[in-house]
Specification:
By secondary structure, this protein is mainly β. A hairpin with a 2-residue loop joins strand 21 and strand 22.
Length: 406
């Protein structure tokens, strides 16, 4: 009898553990394409139903449904139709076809106003030290957009308006975490006979990255797979405009442990490919203006995969690291299906010896390199691990075509 009780107790504990694991494995967020099935393994008694209480299917193995309406929908998970367990957020995306690129491009981004990247003390022409920015609330990462009601779009315009003040108080309108604020500040006449605020500012950013794909239907592009951030503040640059251009690759510095590599390039004159209209954590977005400056392989046109279609194992990436876009082998090592919040959706490893010999693995400038598996675009390279340049992260393609998170 004693052994029977132990057996029953162990059976109950195992039974409870199995249900806990099953419930925990049901994803909270799901992104699928129009017409695609959702397959969620469940145990007996666990039901998944729409908000209108329409039960999708109740079995001991599988709950599934086909979604044809584009948009968002919520599913309820409950136990024996009595106990609510969790809510599943389903986002149904329009099925599209894109042309993966892999081309290395030059990127120019202009800020919304001028970006504050630092503060400093000022020695006035009277020999005293001043900090005119103190007590104004202006911080690194804020953007100055107006002075005395005059729009500011460049550092040159900022300097002009400050010097117009003649040392009188000016009213600065600035953005702090997307919230518009204002403050009064008294410019100080420096030893060089110019009025100053004690703020270091920047009005543009430039670099090299990879074009991920071209959407022929919308004549649009997506690149990088991550945002362009300010090198000093680390904040995402709030852009007012920008462009991508053709670039000449000058050299490739191989990545090594603790020493990230990089692609060094020079932006060609009069080689604009397209204009940028958005800078997000999942990439930069824009419209193609001069298709003749963009090298597209229309034979590569393919569907975008949902994250549920991605498999652990072999895949390839496209990169123009040596001036010509080529396909290179890699491995998908981990997949984070519930990740809707950043661009580290998958762990990848470069396995192609040709690419490793050229770059050492993943290097700066390869961000945005499209990843292909089973004939579909599944994502793009975004980051490298500093201690191993052959390993890094990639973002889901379904995040890049619709970069909104729950």
């Amino acid at each position: 009898m004693k052994y029977l009780k132990k057996f029953v107790l162990l059976f109950v504990l195992f039974f409870m553990y199995s249900y806990i694991v099953s419930i925990d494995n049901i994803p909270i967020n799901i992104k699928i394409f129009q017409g695609e099935n959702i397959d969620i393994p469940t145990l007996w008694g666990i039901n998944i139903e729409k908000e209108n209480d329409e039960i999708i299917e109740t079995t001991s193995n599988l709950s599934s449904s086909t979604f044809n309406k584009i948009g968002k929908e919520k599913l309820q998970v409950n136990l024996f139709n009595k106990i609510k367990l969790k809510t599943i957020n389903v986002e149904v995306l329009e099925q599209i076809e894109v042309i993966p690129s892999g081309e290395i491009v030059g990127i120019k981004l202009y800020t919304n106003g001028v970006l504050v990247v630092g503060t400093t003390s000022i020695e006035g022409n009277d020999g005293k030290i001043y900090k005119p920015f103190e007590n104004t609330g202006i911080q690194e990462g804020d953007s100055i957009i107006e002075i005395n009601g005059v729009s500011i779009n460049s550092t040159k315009e900022l300097i002009t308006e400050i010097n117009k003040s003649g040392g009188n108080d000016i009213e600065i309108t600035y953005l702090h975490e997307s919230e518009q604020k204002s403050a009064k500040i008294t410019p100080i006449l420096g030893k060089e006979s110019n009025y100053k605020l004690g703020l270091w500012v920047r009005d543009s950013a430039a670099g090299v990255g990879t074009l991920t794909f071209y959407n022929e239907e919308e004549n649009s592009f997506v690149a990088l797979g991550h945002a362009i951030t300010d090198i000093d503040t680390g904040e995402i640059i709030q852009t007012s405009s920008g462009e991508i251009d053709d670039v000449e690759i000058i050299s490739v510095v191989k990545g090594e442990k603790e020493e990230p590599g990089r692609i060094e390039g020079s932006i060609k004159n009069n080689s604009c490919i397209g204009s940028i209209y958005n800078n997000t954590q999942f990439g930069i977005y824009g419209i193609v203006k001069n298709k003749s400056n963009l090298n597209l392989n229309y034979n590569r046109k393919m569907k975008v995969a949902s994250r549920g279609e991605i498999e652990i194992g072999k895949a390839t990436c496209l990169s123009g690291i040596d001036g010509e876009v080529k396909e290179y082998e890699l491995e998908i090592e981990k997949i984070y299906l519930n990740n809707n919040y950043d661009n580290k959706s998958m762990v990848i490893k470069i396995t192609d010896e040709n690419l490793i010999s050229k770059s050492g693995g993943i290097i700066q400038g390869m961000s945005g390199s499209p990843i292909i598996q089973n004939g579909k675009l599944i994502g793009a390279i975004t980051h490298v691990l500093v201690n191993d340049p052959q390993i890094g992260y990639a973002v889901f393609a379904d995040q890049m075509i619709n970069p909104k998170s729950y």
